[in-house]
Amino acid sequence: MPIERFQILSLDGGGFRGMYTAAVLARLEEDLDTRIVDHFDLIAGTSTGGIIALGLGLGVPTKEIVRFYVEHGPRIFRNRSRLRTVRHLVRAKYDTEPLRLALTEVFGERTFGESTKRLVITSYNLAGDDVYLFRTPHLPTLKRDWRESAVNVALATSAAPTYLPGLPLDGARLVDGGLWANNPTMVALTEAVGPLNVPLKSIRVLSLGTTAEVRSRHRRLDRGGLLSWAGGAVEILMRAQSESAAKQARHFVGKENVLRINPTVPTGAVALDKVDIQTLYGLAGHVSRDASPAVHRLFCDHRAPVFAPYYPAREG
Question: pTM here?
């Protein structure tokens, strides 16, 4: 049976700024009187976007995901002393345990395979020096990831280098997927067109960023050099990847079929580990209000068919 429509929800990485993404989704649901997740056939997430994608797949209401950030974010990214800043020179700035406890409170003992939506969650394997994807069992060849706990998948995708330690898992050493796909739109598009055999003409994409700072790049960067680039290289690389992924997606499926929501904010207004919750929530309300007509027009006339996963135990 031909696929007439296949809709992708792509969620960027961005640490604590994921609260903005979750709040946009929650406010869109209020404005449109619908569950956003019901309209998407595949959800891709990186880092904090991976955590949100897991929550959506496991049926966690968007308002509960917002509450996760509001209540647990300050504890996860708490810098209790100057010693922690010194320790940051040789070890991760924050401990994993507060994040693990917060995730367990939301996801419990559920596995990745319990998702009711197709998910693709990014990570990076330092042991293999290769990209690493967690994929729900939406194909009969995907026989392993579904057994993994949702908490471990969330920890693996969000282990941002220098901020949180990596996760050892089944011989792999996993860190934040933002190293290669901070905007996972092209990861999702590749999954749809390749393994899932979806025609490009059938695809529509809603891509949510976690805000972008308005920056002026200093001319010293033009000269190169370690000192010139040391402070901003990571941020530039992540922004460049995100912008590239958005433009590539528009090229493949048509700009009219891709809606990218990623407002700019003043430099220094938000950080991966520090945000003003009220300001960010207010921005989400403003942005979602402006975006809701386009979201309704492009996505709400399609309801995704019920996802029927493949499990090895059910084969034969």
Answer: 0.91
